Amino acid sequence: MTVSRRTVLAAIGGAGLALAVRPAYATPEAMKSAVRQIAGEAAVKPGKVKLDLPPLVENGNTVAMGVMVDSPMTAKDYVKAIHVFTEKNPQANVISVKLGPRAGKADIQTRVRLADTQQVIAICEMSDGSFCPTRST
Amino acid sequence: MAARTLINVPQKAKRGEVIQIKTLISHIMETGFRHDNMGRSIPRDIITSFTCTYNGEKIFEAALYQAIATNPFVTFHTVAVESGTFTFQWTGDNGFTQEASAKITVG
Q1: Average pLDDT taken over every residue of chain B
Q2: For residue range A5-49, what is the model confidence (pLDDT) as tens digits?
Q3: Which chain A residue has the Cα nearest residue B18?
Q4: Which residue among A40, A72, A134, A136 is least crowded, i.e. fewest CB within 10 A of its CB?
């Protein structure tokens, strides 16, 4: 596993938590299997989801997190669900949200716990059955 | 144990407007992964699901896990279609349930 400059800086600063970019192979198995349970082998369309997390936080017990999906949210084309996963928390699941065309806007915010410097993944399920993943950077 | 809830819904909205709903509930969200000073594990006590209905129709549903922080705060959006009531329901471990509601006037 490569250690990025940001990870090193965060450790030196005693900052406890930073979200560092890692190559995909560093993702632990637990998160992969949790993701696979939701998405299976369905079609993946990248680039519609925006995951909003601070790059560096002092306290991992409450981290404000927002997930926005670029979708018209009409009866034919809407976001069915948003799932969020982490790779280093004791449990991979963070939140699973079900939305419908009545949501108007696929934009949710919550506060999460993050155990360590790690990557967070949000996957949204579209009404046509496809999935859009995104990673925190 | 009754938990305190805080709901933020606009009182008035135009028909078809996308409104933001903010909800907060006081809850310990004990993960079940921690131990007390005697080394005994502290049992899990979290809110597992949250739903919002708008005049009886479900508009939002969330499954929460241990990774959600203490006093779960959830924000989401909906389209204001008619005047009425939002009902919020939280359910969790150890038979925890809590309900709250908010009214909206759509003009």
Answers
A1: 94
A2: 665 555 544 433 333 344 343 457 777 787 877 777 777 777 688
A3: A104
A4: A40
Q: What is the CATH number of domain B5-106?
A: 2.60.40.10
Q: A130 CB contacts (<8 Å, ≥6 apart)?
A: A42, A43, A44, A45
In chain A, residues 105-134 whose CB comes closer than 8 Å to chain B: 105-114
Q: Do B31 and A113 touch (CB under 8 A)?
A: yes
Compute the distance between CA of residue A123 and CA of residue B63 in angstroms, rounded to an integer.
14
Residue B76: closest C-alpha in chain A: A108
Report yes or no: A97 and A107 within 8 Å, Cβ to Cβ: no
Q: What span, in angstroms and rounded, lies between the C-alpha atoms of B27 and A97?
A: 19
Contacts of A104 in chain B (CB under 8 A): 18-19, 77-79
Domain ranges of chain B: 5-106
Chain segment B21-49, per-residue pLDDT in tens: 999 999 999 999 999 999 999 999 999 99
Distance CA B107, CA B105 (A): 6
What span, in angstroms and rounded, lies between the C-alpha atoms of A77 and B15? Answer: 21
Distance CA A36, CA A43 (A): 12
CB-based contact (8 Å) between B82 and chain A? no
Cα–Cα distance for residue pair A84/A67, rounded to 1 Å: 9
> For chain B, what is the largest distance between any 2 Cα atoms, rounded to a whole number of angstroms?
59
